[in-house]
Amino acid sequence: MSFAAFAFGGLRFLRPGFLYFLPLALLPALIHLLSRKKAVIYIFPSVRLLKKDALSRTTDFNLLSILLLIIRMLALSLLVFYFAGPSFVFGKKELAAGGTAVFADYSYSMNRVSGASPLWEDARAVAGELVRALAEEKPSVFVFNNGFSFQGRGEEGIKALAEKKNPTAASVNFTEGLSKFLEQNTDIKRVFVISDFAPSSFAGEVVAPADAQVLCLSLGDKAVNYFIRSCSIYDRHITVFPMLLPVGRAEYSISAKSGAERINAIAASGQSAAITVPEEYSSGRIEIDNADALPEDNVFFYSRPDREKTPLPVLRGGGGMLDRDGTYYIRKIVEQSSLFSAEVLSEPFVFGEKLTSARAAVISNPASVSSSLAAQLRGWVAKGGLLIMFPGGDTIVDDMNRDISDLLPGRMYPVKEQSLAGGAVLEIPWAGDEFSGEHYAKLSVSKFFPLRAREDALELIKSGGETLAAAVRFGDGAVILFALPADMSFSNLPVVAGFPPFFLKSLEYFVYERKEFRRNYSVGDRVSLPAGASLSFEGREIEIRPGPDAALLSAPLEEPGLYEVSGSADGKIAVNLVRGAENDLSVMSPSEIKRIFPGSALFKIRNPEAEVAHILRGKNMSAAALLLFIMLLCTETALAYKLNHS
Questions:
Q1: CB count, 10 Å around CB of 414?
Q2: Nearest 5°: CA angle at 141, between 118 and 166?
């Protein structure tokens, strides 16, 4: 029998691993045996009268030595027992006065391995031991991440836990939810919280009724995990932004893999690194340091095949020198892209001819739009074209609102120049995650032509509470109308930092991306595919249901990785975890847990089968073992003193 299962009847040990040190109690006996010397007998007849007294002293000496030896062995045994955490289980546990609830942490950080198994498996084992030990009560079993999810009562709840996949969502604000739960469920008098206690899951103090008992069962130890925060794909190279770089290290490694094959590896430093992916590889994963604690933290990528370069006709509708006109800046922006080329035109007739083969077009400072050009624009946009318009000093507002009002997503109003401060942004579906409110705040403008968006405008960008741009779908195409001139005369720079990426992203989306199926997702996103397409992951078919315009996945994707698309569309879809606060795998200290759960008992769980019984029914004997050890130590000191002075 191993010491891990070691017990004397009702006596059990919370930390049975320390019992392996029990043979150290034999150390005093071993030292005693090794230090003994063979006696040499000398006979002195003249001192025969002293023999009786010497024999008496020898007898006393042997008894004291043996007693001292036993005391030392017992003292060492008690010291080992103290560290092993002895407890005694007294018969059968009494039923709780109220109900019991078991909460298992179903958050992302529970994926990491501590010891021999992932923490989520340990949490299920602890919950199972609790349910079996409290069989009479049939405790309610819950999981928590973004809220609570009831799994069932008793064994039913444990079976539901066993069927759940590895968690992927970050847990948030469990303590607030637990406080409300205890307030609303007054029959629950005892709560078990099983977690690794990552700080992001717990905010604020748990407010528990005076008659409710909360017990925290902590799993695992703090780990280090350096992960990739995000990445951007540009043609054949990928820019990686890591998080939590190793302290004291100036360099780290980045690897690109396709399946099991490593296709590139670089040494890098700083807050970003660019790694090249050879042309023949269109999908794979990026790893940092090749030693991630959680493989899912690495980034899966799908880089699109090369796209055909698209010409962009730009109509220069106003007067002035070319280097001061807005089309100059539009052309400079377009030159940064490998997907577009700009052709500046002054004649509306030539511009109209170019529209027939163009996918997108720009009109800068339109002095006027003729009725024939307006009709041509309507037909072209309705068939899928993207029209981007900028007002300017020569723009005739009344003509614009009269001649193409059905195309414009907003009405323009000629007012005096006014300065705007601050910024606000509404979501733009084609901008993705690359742009934020802080990004658009840089686009604060001095406006000549403010826009009041129509009710049918698709989305708005605002700066300082004023409309900066509005967009609307028109047939299969779209129109974006800016409220500032294309030359951006409000800026001391050629262009404001936020404008070029938004402009190019808008072009890329309307010309290419909206006609392709999306390739990059996060866990939990709902995936859209063309009608007739099928989806599989690691050889498993993913069920999809037909929707009104496309085939819609019946449920969000739950596992990170590369998904295969076949049928009406072929290729791969990269699905990545949302980068949350739990990626760093930090855990709360015991003192922090005590502050969050005031008055609760905290237990570090390493062996659920042995330790849950102690928590529920055991009488802790550690204090008694320590007291006996101190008493024996005092006795040993007194006997040793007497023996040395005899």
A1: 12
A2: 30
Both tokens assigned to 408:
């414009």
Query: What are the structure tokens assigned to 611, written together?
Result: 């330790």
CATH architecture of 227-304: Sandwich (2.60)
User: Is 452 in contact with 379 (CB distance < 8 Å)?
Assistant: no
- Are 240 and 215 a contacting pair, CB within 8 Å? no
Question: Strand runs (DSSP E) across 21-146, as ranges?
Answer: 86-89, 99-105, 113-114, 117-118, 140-145
Rounded CA gap, 330 and 487, in Å? Answer: 8
Q: Is the four-CA dihedral 450, 455, 458, 460 of positive or negative sign? A: positive
Higher pLDDT, 358 or 27: 358
**Total Cβ atoms within 10 A of residue 279:** 11
Q: Do domains 99-223+585-620 and 227-304 have the same CATH topology?
A: no
The neighbouring-strand residues paired with 390 are: 364
Instruction: Count CA within 13 A, CB hemisphere, residue 511.
Output: 21
| The pair of three-digit structure tokens given for residue 219, joined into one six-digit string | 């799993």
In sequence order, which ranges of 305-367 are alpha helices (DSSP H)?
326-334, 348-355
Task: Count CB atoms within 10 A of the CB of residue 348.
Answer: 19
HSE value, Cβ hemisphere, 13 Å, CA-based, for 434: 17
Residue that is written with structure tokens 């936020």 in the block: 498
Give 384-442 pLDDT, tens digit per residue: 999 999 887 778 888 888 888 888 888 887 765 555 455 555 666 676 666 666 666 66
Which tens digit of pLDDT belongs to each residue from 244-278?
555 545 677 888 888 888 898 888 877 778 888 88
Please tell me the CATH code under which domain 519-576 is placed.
2.60.40.1220
Which residues fall within 8 angstroms of residue 621, CB to CB, at 6 or more apart?
A: 11, 81, 86, 87, 88
On whether the CB atoms of residues 532 and 570 are closer than 8 A, the answer is no
What letter represents residue 376's amino acid?
Q
Query: 427 CB contacts (<8 Å, ≥6 apart)?
Result: 459
The pTM (predicted TM-score) of the whole model is 0.57
Tally the C-alpha atoms within 13 A of residue 458's C-alpha that lie toward its C-beta: 16
| DSSP codes of every residue in 79-101 | HHHHHH-EEEE-SSPPPPSSEEE
* Annotation: CATH topology of 99-223+585-620: Rossmann fold (3.40.50)
- What radius of gyration, in Å, describes the C-alpha atoms of the chain? 38
Q: List, edge to edge, every strand of the sheet that includes 618-620.
A: 11-13, 86-89, 618-620
Q: Distance between the two ends of the chain, CA-based, in angstroms?
A: 46
Distance CA 596, CA 573 (A): 41
Domain ranges in the chain?
Answer: 3-85+623-644, 99-223+585-620, 227-304, 310-514, 519-576
Which tokens belong to 9?
A: 């009847």
- Residues forming a β-bridge with 389: 363, 481
In whole angstroms, what is the distance from residue 360 CA to residue 385 CA? 5
Between strands 113-114 and 117-118, the pairing is antiparallel
Going from the C-alpha of 365 to that of each of 216, 416, 420, 449, 482, the distances in angstroms are: 67, 17, 21, 11, 11
Render pLDDT for 28-84 as a digit per residue (tens, 0 to 9). 777 777 766 555 555 555 555 555 555 445 444 567 778 888 888 888 888 887 887
CB-CB contact of 535 with 500 (8 Å): no
Fold of 310-514: Rossmann fold (3.40.50)
